[in-house]
TrEMBL record:
Protein name as catalogued: Agmatine deiminase family protein
Gene Ontology terms, MF aspect: agmatine deiminase activity; protein-arginine deiminase activity
InterPro entries with a match to the protein in the record: Peptidyl-Arg-deiminase_porph (IPR007466)
Organism the protein comes from: Microbacterium oleivorans
Compositionally biased spans, kind Low complexity: 353-362
Keyword terms: Hydrolase
Keyword hit for Hydrolase: yes
Region described as Disordered: 337-370
PANTHER family given in the database record: AGMATINE DEIMINASE-RELATED
Length: 370
């Protein structure tokens, strides 16, 4: 079999999320907890305008989830500790030789390098639970990795960062060749583009050590959206040229150079914890739309919407305030995981069917589209 991770722009069956539960990530006060619940719920409702949303909900949060989400989101009971679904949930893949088969990559998840503060052992089981729920074939991996640590173009190219997959707290014996081979086996990536690092805030105690999904993403094969920090007072102003240089010198799986479009950061440089990592790259592409991060900066938010509209023609861009998410360590892309739609596979006709006979009324031989 030959697994391939489709581009995020391909049609989705649904988006997966996990509902927050009380703990350090959510916050220590009632106000902080309420803010976190509201932020996750706002993203779920925004996505649900475009496609179905399935939410893993810890039994302790069932009543609250129902009150905040109503009937707009499918809720599935499952033990939850961390709730960054992109990272501990499955990475979905397809097999082009078996059009009706869905695969689910189960990376090893150790809480972004097994830091002492992380509660991750329950959520490390989510990939298997979700795979069973949707009847996907499980693709087990021995690599410690998170969904936020990869971005693909759907045609064989994957973006990685050296400080994530080669992190000794994750994979102490890995090298590029071993990671490249595992990317080929699990998600069908024939070409890995290695970026040297991620954004500055991501290397704090509670960071991921350089996830790529806050730095760069493919809007289409050969087209990369790249974070930009125009203010020299922010340390990422010096970081981004190094990252851009790696992309400028790269070629994708088709052998072409990359066109790069920059997404400038908003004007705010700091919050109570230090320099922010506010990034419009951390958006989610959905069926017919884009769920974009907003940062309370009308000028920058509007500029980002315009860039995203141009980069994803024909999609409606919806902005959701992402500051409560970033305050907790991530963004909209980090809390969501898309499940690709599979093509419709009609049963074979009987031997009595005449060649060229029309399909049964109501059936379609076209691929699922939204």
């Amino acid at each position: 079999m030959s697994w391939r991770m489709p581009a995020e722009t391909a049609p989705h069956e649904r988006t997966w999320m996990a509902f927050p539960r009380e703990g350090m990530t959510l916050g220590g006060t009632d106000a902080e907890r309420d803010e976190g619940y509201a932020a996750w719920s706002a993203v779920a409702r925004a996505v649900a305008e475009f496609e179905p949303v399935a939410m893993l909900v810890d039994p302790s949060e069932t009543v609250r989830a129902r009150s905040l989400l109503g009937d707009t989101v499918e809720q599935i009971a499952a033990p939850v500790d961390e709730f960054w679904m992109r990272d501990h949930g499955p990475t979905f893949v397809v097999d082009d030789e078996r059009p009706g088969v869905l695969g689910a990559v189960d990376w090893i998840f150790n809480g972004w390098g097994a830091p002492g503060w992380a509660d991750w052992r329950l959520s490390a089981e989510h990939a298997r639970a979700v795979a069973a729920h949707v009847d996907a074939e499980l693709v087990s991996s021995v690599l410690v990795n998170e969904g936020g640590g990869i971005h693909v173009d759907g045609t064989g190219t994957v973006l990685l960062t050296e400080t994530v997959q080669l992190d000794p707290r994750r994979n102490p014996f890995a090298d590029r060749a071993r990671v490249d081979a595992e990317m080929l086996r699990t998600i069908g990536a024939t070409t890995a583009i290695w970026l040297p690092r991620g954004l500055t805030r991501d290397y704090d105690e509670f960071g991921t050590n350089g996830h790529v999904d806050i730095v760069a993403t493919f809007a289409a094969p050969g087209l990369v959206l790249l974070h930009a920090q125009p203010d020299a007072a922010h340390p990422d102003h010096a970081v981004m040229p190094e990252i851009r240089a790696a992309l400028d010198g790269a070629t994708d799986a088709a052998g072409r150079g990359l066109e790069i479009i920059e997404l400038p950061a908003p004007a705010q440089l700091r919050d109570a914890e230090g320099f922010v990592d506010y990034s419009y790259v951390n958006h989610l592409v959905v069926n017919g739309g884009v769920i974009a991060c907003g940062f309370g900066d009308a000028t920058a938010d509007d500029r980002a919407r315009g860039i995203l509209r141009d980069a994803y023609p024909g999609r409606r861009v919806v902005t959701v305030d992402a500051r409560p998410l970033f305050a907790r360590g991530g963004g909209i892309h980090c809390i969501t995981q898309q499940q690709p739609a599979l093509p419709r596979v009609d049963p074979p006709r009987s031997a009595d069917d005449a060649p060229g006979a029309p399909a049964i009324a109501g059936e379609s031989t076209e691929q699922v589209q939204r």
